[in-house]
Amino acid sequence: MKSILNIGQSKLIFVENFILGTTYRSIDSLYKKDQGKVAFTAPSNIALVKYWGKRPVQLPENASLSFTLSECRTETSITYKRRKDKGVGFSIAFLFEGEPKLSFEPKIHTFFDRIAPYCLFLNDFEFIINSKNTFPHSSGIASSASGMSALAMCLVEIENELGGSLSAEERIEKASFLARLGSGSACRSIEGPITIWGKHQKIKGSSDEFAVPFEHEIASVFKNYQDTVLLIDKGEKQVSSTVGHNLMHGHPFAKTRFEQANANLDKLSSVLQNGDIAQFIEIVESEALTLHAMMMTSLPYFILMKPNTLEMINSIWNYRKETGVPVCFTLDAGANVHVLYPEKDKEAVLAFIEAELAEKCQNRQYICDYLGIGIKKM
Ligand code: 2P0
Question: If one looks up domain 30-214 in CATH, what number appears?
Answer without folding.
Answer: 3.30.230.10
